[in-house]
Amino acid sequence: MARKIVGAALILVVLCVSGEVGANLCSKKLDIIIAADVSGSMDDNQFTQLQTFLSTLVDNIKISKTSGARVIVLAFDDQINSLASSFSDKVTTSRSGIKTQINGLQFTAGSTVIDTVIEEAKDLLSSANRDTAQKVVVFVTDGVNFNGTDSLVLPAQELRDTFNARVIGLGIGEANSVNIPGLRILAGQNDRVLILTFEPSSGGKCCDDDDDDDDDDDDRKRRRRRDDDDDDDECDDRRRRRRRDEDDGGCSSGVSNELKNVIKLICYG
């Protein structure tokens, strides 16, 4: 179900659940909202790069209603648009559903209104119904708010304090055009702010990262039991290759260092 709300931003909500993290695989129990900017301060090329980046990000996060990530994607400028209205929507718990959300984003080129996106993030987190999950909100924007930077101070602090939310600011654009102080106000600390250059990835992902849509779990388990020997051999080989990878723990040489850093922020803070 699509929604429009005054205030602009794109929010991607990712929920990671349980387990240990491979170098580029998020498998912790997290409720994540990522808000991405589709305002006029972006351009067509940046918007396309953003969609590709988010799609690759999802490829490297375990997706599951119970044992992995749930993801909501909201697009914002002076309106908010989403194909999901809550974490309970099916499009949030399968990789195909999340990619449908990402591919459905529209470059609407309005004004950048971050204040309203913060309020929307609060509403989504308040109904997440996973008390033991770490809440994460990722803003993908140039940080230049229509209502000014100062208007973000109290709402951002309330978002972090009320929900114990880990807030991450990902800047888009040339370094001299990104409002880094604004991103730092959102995140609450400097080491949770990065400027994206959209460093190319070749689409690699971790062996453990299956598309765990819970509606299909039983079928997958039956198939896995039949293929255990082959699967175990393949995963063992890939894990050995991973251990031989670079010192930064590359799960696959196809995953960029930039993407690895974003996943580490999402999973570890």
From TrEMBL:
Species per Swiss-Prot/TrEMBL record: Pocillopora meandrina
Residue ranges annotated for the VWFA domain, each copy included: 31-198
Highest taxon listed in the record's lineage: Eukaryota
Signal peptide residue numbers: 1-23
Entry-linked CDD domains: vWFA
Keywords: Signal
InterPro entries: ECM_Assembly_Org, VWF_A, vWFA_dom_sf
Biased composition regions of type Acidic residues, renumbered to the chain: 208-218
Coiled coil regions in record: none
Gene3D superfamilies: von Willebrand factor, type A domain
Name the UniProt record assigns to this protein: VWFA domain-containing protein
Region (Disordered): 205-256
